[in-house]
Amino acid sequence: MGEPVHPLDDRADPLLSALRRGVLPLSQKDGLMLLYGHPAALVLGLYAAADRALAGEAVVYLDGANAFDPFVISRVARTHRAQPRTLLTSIHVARAFTCHQMERLVSDCLATALSRYQARVAILSGPLETFYDEAVSSDEATRLLKRMITSLQKLSRQGYRALCLCPSVSPQHQNRYGLLMRLQAAATRLIRVEDAEGLLSLYEETAGSSKQWQIPRAVLEHV
Amino acid sequence: MTLKPALSHTRLTGWLLDVYPDRTGMAVWFLDDEGRRFRLLDPYHPAFYLTGPQPDLLAALRTLRNAPATVRLVERRELGMHDTMPVTEVAVCQPIVFTTLVRSLIRRFEHVQFYQADVSLPQLYFYDRQLFPLARCEVEVTSHGIIQAIHATDSPWDTNYGMPPLSILELSLEGASFNPNHGGTFHLVVRVDRQERRLEHTDHADLLTSFNTLLQRYDPDVLITDWGDSYLLPRLLMLASQLRIPLALNRDPMRSVEIRPPRSYFSYGRILASAGARTLYGRLHIDRQNSFVMAETGFAGLIEQARVTKVPLQHMARTTTGTGITSMQMEHAHRDSILIPYRKRQTEEFKSALELLHTDQGGLVFAPLSGYHENVGELDFASMYPSIMVRFNVSPETVNCSCCAHDPLARVPEIKHHTCRQREGLVPRTLRPLLNKRAQYKRQLAATADSAARWVLDQRQTALKWLLVVSFGYLGYKNARFGRIEAHESVTAYSRDILLQAKESAEATGFRLLHAIVDSLWLHKPGATRADYEALAQAISARTRLPIAVEGLYHWIGFLPSRVNPRMPVHNQFAGVFETGEMKVRGLEVRRSDAPLVVKRAQAEILRCLGDAKTLRELREAVPRGIEIVRAYRHYLREGRARLEELVISKSLSQDPRSYRHETRTAIAAKELLGHGVKLQAGESLYYVITDAPARLPHDRVRAAATIDGTWSYDAGAYEQLLHNAALAILSPLGVESALLDRLTSPVGRVE
Amino acid sequence: MGRTLTTFTQLVWQEIDAWSRYRRALRAEDQQALDILFAAARKHSAAGAYLARETPFDVMLLSMLLEQQKQVLLLQQKVCDLETRALPHPPHGVAP
Ligand SMILES: [Zn+2]
User: Fold this and answer.
1) Cβ within 8 Å, pair A88-C54
2) CATH class, B168-335 region
3) What is the nearest CA distance from A158 to chain C, expressed in angstroms?
4) ipTM of this predicted structure
5) Å from CA of B339 to ligand 1 middle
6) The whole model's pTM is what?
7) Phi and psi at residue A163, in whole multiples of 5°?
8) Per-10-residue mean pLDDT for chain C, 96 residues long?
9) Cβ-defined contact of C44 to B358 (cutoff 8 Å)
């Protein structure tokens, strides 16, 4: 299980190759993994979903950033000579537009979905974006996030992997920075995504590790 | 003005003016048939509900032991549930503490579910007592003004309702054509009892005293202002407190003016500003400059919306139309013992990415065949989305119900949803009477000749139209209490299928589809008469079972090309002339708030001149006259004759003015105002004039309109360019190229 | 709850963007031809949206072909008209 069905050509897809060297294929010890920083992290989430689908796995995808893009998945499929439809059918998406919905999706619906689709991986794209809404008090957002983290930790103890992708907190929401810190503290693997001089760099920040990968920025340009 | 004890126990007939929570009930302001205003008290105890794990629930109830509330167990249903469930009802005996009480419980008991916890109390009162704003009422009161019984004698669904004899005092500023907060000096103008008074006191105390005298003498029910929320009332109140002269703005002497601060917020990807509010007790303050409903539908429309939605007038004037729709849904739920959730927690169902590709779509838009066409007919589905919701029973609890999963007739076209065929949903139940009432108004409008009566009917039907328009958006709005993504998706899926059915019917009878947007079709058939279009509309109605009508027949209509890329069709730019001579224009400067008046006026004149043409041939013949209009306006601009108000450009601040990084014109004008100490917020409108577009120093390029006095001049070239663009949009499909238009209208050589 | 997916019209714009380097290296007259092709894709965005295919560029290509086919038919008709008019025995004065 977990081995790519389609052998991978590094030159054909340098982005996915780089991800596979460092991040994927999300082994069980990865538990709750967090990629944060550059907004391109969200695209990496789409690639991660495509990667698992290429491997023949079902994926559960929670979209909190309203950024799910099936056309990226289609392109990955074509690059790897797979049927776009096949990949798209094995990715199961639900969107959250408020933090209450996000929390409920994670706490009440995720476990059921993972078992219904026989998926082992949940991808949470921008799980905190809905928590930055000023209409929700800071206290309430924190309370909901705590509940959400507890649910994620429970799932990871059950052997599921969760990959969270969090773009940096924008300046106007700096007062909610603590939410990201909470999620970082709860993560079993932590990777920072940075854009430097045309390179997208991934830095492992998990305790006791200091790995680093680089992906040419250009490969992200047409996604 | 409170009830005199001498009245003793009595029955009054009259009108409901205002309702708000008070210490031992709801304060109810009443205007009786003898013209007296009373403050009555209805000992009403608003309730909220809770459920949850037993220990948490008990703990929550323990904290209520000393609160002014009574607790009992009742049976209620959740939306979409067959069976009732026991919930704890907490009725609060002091409405004035309701909100604080509920909020503190919500904060403390996170595992407890709350219902009906944040419904505005006047609305809840209206639902429970079956009343509504400005209802005609009978009320029984004790000698102390305590209401024993109250009931409405007319219905919010009446179309021929009487209006209470409201006394109205209007307050505005003389000389304020832009936002007065941006600068300038003005006189206070009071209009009351058909008279206009200018308050020209140099002494502030005198000003306040004479304003107070007017308030006391006329005791208005309604205070209608321009800029009352953001400028007038805040300043008057500030003066009053500085000079220690109490201002008699409120009718209820026990209350002070309610203040809500301004704020900016995001809506559908745009930043909007809310100007804040100053609302009154026992008297209604409406700020014309801070009211979408007033701007769109006038006072008659505002009253219509308040009556059918049961949202108090002052709130309805300032809130979104969506609040009105939500209120109607909440009332239906309340009436049917359905619990109103405090926070929406309904989530999207999982679907495969492939399914998402099909469901996540809007209505269909057929790109227009660019250019001018003659003998065109437009057919519009009347309130298409709400009609779909009613006809196909689309509601959060009816989509993907468990009872009809295998009923082929319940299937939504193209996508994997279905809607219930057993029970009518909350949303259709709410919308059906609205659709009927609007249709009734439209029938009355067609049968009415009197222009004053027509005006009122039109404002009322427009008010209902807006409620219907937002009802669809609210089905998919993230915070809508009774919204659900799958319901939203079902409506658009139906709309696509229905538009295609209409296209097929039209094409089958020889019509050609020129353009279509979601619920409107523009069709052409050589020699087709009105009767042919009517017959087509009937055929489509019969096939889709949704009402569609002939909006009109055009002598000609032009679908105008994109200005950036003339080859690319765009769907929101057209101008056409109906057989009645009436014009319909979309997307052009005349319809845009950011175009200066002089450009709008020129474009309107060109359109009027072209509007005399009845055929494409006549249209082409009219082109030289159109060009002549452009030439005359260029001349006018070049000579420097244009006045300030003709040149002002209004733009909305897309962000906090201090965070602009580029020297855009809006940013320059904003900085100028900030320099004058003006407070600005994202989303509000700025007004500026182009003074010297190519100037090296940014602050020479534009000036804020409010700061202009003394000598100034405008950049004629910049305005000529705007004029040129506005004219070219209309004329280029008629063969007038940019260079030609420029040459034919050039003022050079004609002006000394 | 705003739309999540890119609309077909936006997809056309994205595609135009993706081909911008290609376009830049074309001769001016060829650039014009390319623009006409993409305008053809945009013209049929209703059909493209309704189909909602996972590989939208296929749909754009078909829309371009469709417009080309219309041009071919139009030209055929014109040729046919011209040929009819050029026949050696014209009936009395067929109006051009
Ligand atoms: Zn059913």
Assistant:
1) yes
2) alpha beta
3) 31
4) 0.93
5) 20
6) 0.92
7) -110, 115
8) 84 94 96 94 95 96 97 96 78 49
9) no
